[in-house]
Amino acid sequence: SHLSTQYCDGFRGVFIVYGSLKGLYDVDDESTIITLADWYHVFAPDGQNDFFKTGSVPVPDSGLINGRGRYVGGPLVDYAVINVVPGKRYRFRLVSIACRPFFTFSIDNHLMDAMELDGVEHDPVTVENVDVYAAQRVSVIVKADQPVGNYWMRAPYVLTGGSPTRNPNLDPNLTRAILRYAGAPTAEPTTERTAGVKLDDGLMHPIASEGPGKYVLYFRICRCVLTVIT
Length: 230
Known about the structure:
single chain, mainly beta, six-stranded mixed β-sheet
């Protein structure tokens, strides 16, 4: 789908392998896949040429959750919405399709049970936010146990190169989506972010093997993004 930095402009999406542990959650389908990405207002070859000339790493204009996001001074596009039903448990599959930065994912007023890293399922660890790096996959289980309403999903990103002063469009805190409970009004959340426990990968322990052949795996390709250069 790409060669070198063309990855930033090319065919990016997720390939999900569905397996075991369904007893830990109620919902795990296309609606619970969450992609995290950086977005640039120049094509990758142009950004690369600028880097070769100046030595300055390109800085994204915005971050995206499920293909949607905002930047400073830009249009107030609708954020992506993840719909949930009170009382149900959701396996959110966080997938970073970013070029460079990493994201810190959280949901206001909700705890998360991290239970999978890069395809390996682990004993759940309860946290309030998790870092997701480029090309990394993390699954978290979230129970819809808060009052019916709208809650911010946040994924501010941290640059791994380049200076934020080089791009006035940049505001990592605009990388958001909306967790919307059934029955909540169609409106943006007013919830506040609070500091909490971050996932420590060192606390993750793979679940003991159940033995080969016990579960049937099936595959699904979904939520792909195709950029066509004309």
